[in-house]
Amino acid sequence: MEKVEQLNEDVYKMLSASGYSDKAIRYFQEKENIGALENADQITDLTGPCGDTMKVFLNIEEDRIDEAKIQVMGCPGAVASACALMGLAKGKSLDEARDLDLDALYKELEKLPDKKIHCARLAIKALQKAISEFQEREN
Ligand code: FES
User: Fold this and answer.
1) 22, 34, 82, 109: least CB-packed within 10 angstroms?
2) What pLDDT was estimated at residue 1?
3) Considering the domain 2-138 in this protein, what is its CATH number?
4) Can you give the pLDDT at residue 55?
5) Residue nearest (by alpha carbon) to ligand 1 atom 4
């Protein structure tokens, strides 16, 4: 247990020194909203130019996102962005969720290193792709 705490502390220091806010580090360490949904209404994956991949799972009730999870093969910026974005998307209508942009995500994360902007963009694009695919299928 002590070893885990020491490891978390070391990771915290490294991420903090490279420009992550405490809130973004908490998202990365707690990994809330990471995972899969059984019987999801929509499953969509997207690979970014960096080679990292995100897979979005949505449960949708009457045009509203009831539950959202995501799997991430990627860096701490990708994990923090993905976790925060799923939290923001939950409970929103599909149109509201598709409008979640970099500003909204950055407001939630408070700070990522500048060179991690593309990680936040990847999360946003993955969610937008999932919503578009769902709507195309339904219409
Ligand atoms: Fe690829 Fe962060 S480096 S998403």
Assistant:
1) 22
2) 56
3) 3.90.1010.10
4) 98
5) 119
Q: Output the residue whose Cα is nearest ligand 1's atom 3.
A: 75
Exposure string for 105-125, b = 16+ CB within 10 A, e = fewer: bbebbeebeeebebbbbbbbe
> pLDDT exceeding 90 applies to what percent of the chain?
92
Cβ(50) to ligand 1 under 6 A? Answer: yes
The helix (H) or strand (E) run that includes residue 13 is helix 2-17
Q: What does the angle CA 31 – CA 37 – CA 40 come to, to the nearest 5 degrees?
A: 140
Q: What is the position in ligand 1's atom list of the atom closest to the CA of 51?
A: 1
Regarding the beta carbon of 72 and ligand 1, being less than 6 Å apart is answered no
